[in-house]
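Annotated sample (chain length 136).
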Amino acid sequence: MYQLCYASCSTSDNDKLLEDLRNILKEARDFNVDHEIRGVLYFADQYFFQCLEGKKEALDILIEKLKKDTRHKGFTLFEYKPVNKSHFVDWSMKYVRRNSVIQQYMRDQGFELFRPKLLQPHQVEELITLLVDIKD
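Output written by the structure step:
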């Protein structure tokens, strides 16, 4: 099993943002169920952070699909690595809304807003752990 995490910036204006988020989540859940991918999506301050786990072949297909999606730009791929166990066994796609725990974590890292592209690898790992632990 492999894990990939990425960050990107929304291209949706405020009028279309909620509709785009709903569509992204539906498409992600459908694709992930069909391809045995599990993960989490966080969105705040116009930025997406997503971490996904599954078979490398399925994740490779998904990366190409994500790169072509016009609802976001500035696709930044963090480490793409093998993992021994899944962090997301219960979710085809967990969605975490803007959250005070994540906001505080970003402030503790020196960022006033959610800017996942600026995180270092160890900070990405810490963010994943926080997202897994948040109960919706």
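Annotation: The domain at 2-133 is CATH 3.30.70.100 (Alpha-Beta Plaits).
Annotation: The helical segments are 14-35, 56-68, 100-108, 121-133.
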